[in-house]
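Minutes, project check-in

Agenda point 3 was the complex the collaborators sent over. CS summarized: two entities, 322 residues total, and the question is how they sit relative to each other. Sequences were read into the notes so everyone works from the same version.
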Amino acid sequence: MGGPAQIRDGNAVDDAALVRRSKRGDRHAFGLLVSRYQAPVYRVVRGILADAAESEDVAQEVFLKAFANLRNFRGDSGFFTWLYRIGVNEALRARKRRPAAPPVESLPEVEAPRPEEPAEEGPSPAALQRLLGKLSDEFRAIVVLRDLEGMSYQEIAETLEIPLGTVESRLFRARRDLRELWRTMKEKSNAL
Amino acid sequence: MHCDDARHLLYAGETATGGRPAELELHLSACDECRLAAEDLAGLNRAFARARAEWAPSPAFRVALPLAPWRKLAVAACLLVLPLAAWAYGSLRPTRPAYDLDTLLLDSPAASTPSDRQLLATMFLEESSR
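CS then shared the predicted structure for the full assembly.
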């Protein structure tokens, strides 16, 4: 799946060792953490922001912020959950600086898929991006962490600093809304 | 299994993207609405998998970390020392007179202005020629 668990398992030096070295001023160690997590952090930011260029800027800010605040990272949770938390917060902050997104009630505004996109295969990444853009901030963040990044519920709870039960209920409503949006999109496509 | 339980498992169960319990499979085989929901969610999961492969930072993307404190000091020191060194070199360098002979011989006031004797000689020659 390419999520955080696979990233951790596929690397000889674990995050904690690299964080310890980074805290001692080893910039090369932090560089390794950056190269390990730049793609997933970018994906999370992109899933929330829906803009490729802006996502790179925000991902850059995420790592600079992590570097500047590394001394405050106590290691109670995993490094990646701490990093993802910064990523989600920075992406949501960047999104708040934009004009407000339309409410979920405006479902008919969702663009229909292009004829070359078979509905059974699910929406294209571009269409998925538009669907995600229709979700509320908290729903979008949780769906991106779970369905895009493959994080466990426990990891999501640590990242978003919410109880496990809230993860479950929020994910239920987020997926239900996403499916409704997808159905509306498919119906529009069939009507064409 | 009721539809509410099935929907809960589909939308919020941690196995929603992996294997499903046999009880849920049994319900899906009998309930069209829930099966449709399961198919839609499977389509969305495929879309997330494609997005995971497609949404990547550009190859030019690099995280530029700020300079280390000792490097900042080194840069500041260079910025301070270089102008000082240039000023010191300029002020301590021995000044030499300009030995440009052409300028001295041709463009100097002494060379371009005729002397009194030359003027008198010129006047005498003009008078005698009349």
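Noted in discussion: The longest helix of chain A spans residues 164-191.
Follow-up: revisit at the next meeting once the mutant set is ready.
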